[in-house]
Specification:
Layout lengths: L3 H4 L14 H19 L3 H17 L21 H4 L2
Organism: Esox lucius
Protein name: Bladder cancer-associated protein
InterPro entries: BCALP
Length: 87
């Protein structure tokens, strides 16, 4: 279960507000996970727990899934505020 301390924080990294950065974010996260799985070789239980948590987050469309953007979910109201986005 030692390897879960390296996998679970990946689920807490927020998705960028700018839709143009979603592809870059998903590619970075995908390559990070692939390199982690190839280099560290986590145990089967840790990998299954992580994949189950990832599946549940993406299936529920909470908005933090880095694999794809749910069409039903909308951007937060602060995403349309030019004073925040323009900085």
């Amino acid at each position: 279960m030692y390897c879960l301390q390296w996998l679970l924080p990946v689920l807490l990294i927020p998705k960028p507000l700018n839709p143009a950065l979603w592809f870059n974010h998903s590619m970075f996260m995908g390559f990070y996970l692939l390199s982690f799985l190839l280099e560290r070789k986590p145990c089967t239980i840790c990998a299954l727990v992580f994949l189950a948590a990832l599946f549940l987050i993406c299936y529920s469309c909470w908005g933090n899934c880095f694999l794809y953007h749910c069409h039903e979910s909308t951007l937060p109201d602060s995403a349309h505020d030019p004073s925040i986005v323009g900085t």
